[in-house]
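Protein in question quoted for reference:
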Amino acid sequence: MGRQHTAAFWVPGLLTIGLVTIGLVVFGVRLIPIAEGDRAIHEAVGDGLRAGQRLYAEVYDNKDPLFFYAVALQRSVGALGGWLFEAGCLALAGWSLAGLHRWLAGVPRPRQEWLGGVLGALLLSGGFWGAGQPQLPASALLLLSVLLICWNRPTAAGVCTALMAGFKLISLPVGLVVGACLSLPGQGGRPMVRFTGGAALTAALMALVVQGRGELTAYGQTLAHNLLYSQGLLLQPGNVVEVMASHARTLFLSGKNNVLMLLALATAGFILLWAARDTSARRTQLARAGLAGLVSAAAITTVTGLWAGHLQLLYPTQCLALVLLVQGWQPQLRWQKAVRIPSLLLITAFLSGTLDLSPTYCCLLYTSDA
């Protein structure tokens, strides 16, 4: 009996540890940026910056400046630089979502907080994410900005919003919309003034740095090129409505995961509407801000998006919907508690479009055979 009791005690624990270890290894492998395609170009640009070349003038790609400065830093760190950056961004996003859960609940609930953080990290690294792309750091900074506003730190939130724009300028309207919705209520608009002041000052300082490097004019020309490209030959020609319809078909109807993302967008909207009707003022405030951000992200994506990766712009506000769901869904019955975490995992995968790992594995096999 003693041996059976010991086995019954240790075996489930060892199985849990083994599964968690395997999960961490698999998840960690996915975070390795593979130097192929766009990532190879990004690393070449980063190496050019390290060699003293000017961005957009002497070494070129059309992403935003902070992203390339970060790639140059990753290359300076060494082989693990890219992996550490991706892991750090996901950790920052997860920590921000855990903090939002605590703010919503009003009391510490460590297990529930980190459940929301881990699920958010899974969502951000879902089907339309790829290691080494600029959207992840922008998403992490947007979520940190939301947390800082909720903590009544609007100036710091504005700083994060401006830094987010330095990584992914197209995310700026989403950050401003969410920030405005959270800052405007109460205190006579002072938080909004501090938020915009922090953002404007940080943006001005970044512009001075870029100008000091002799890159600002060329960056402006790159932005103009990006705008023309987003409305260019890859789309059906016509008036504004026809171009937007072409964007929407490309992004949401060109494959099964794209269609799934359209359904996920509607689901996130439903969750936010559900939370906005709550009696809790904090849940209502965050849900309304998230809903406004989701609508703005969907509109920007429909106007400018071309590739599947552009759907990542929807991820941060979907993370807000997810943390509201995690915090608001507290079942009482035993069977409900048993299915809660598996159900949340399925919902997270659904909101991300997919959690298909095969593209990463294919790249690893390709590079190992080369």
About this structure: Residues 203 and 353 are 33 Å apart (CA to CA). Residues 2-30 form the longest helix (29 residues).
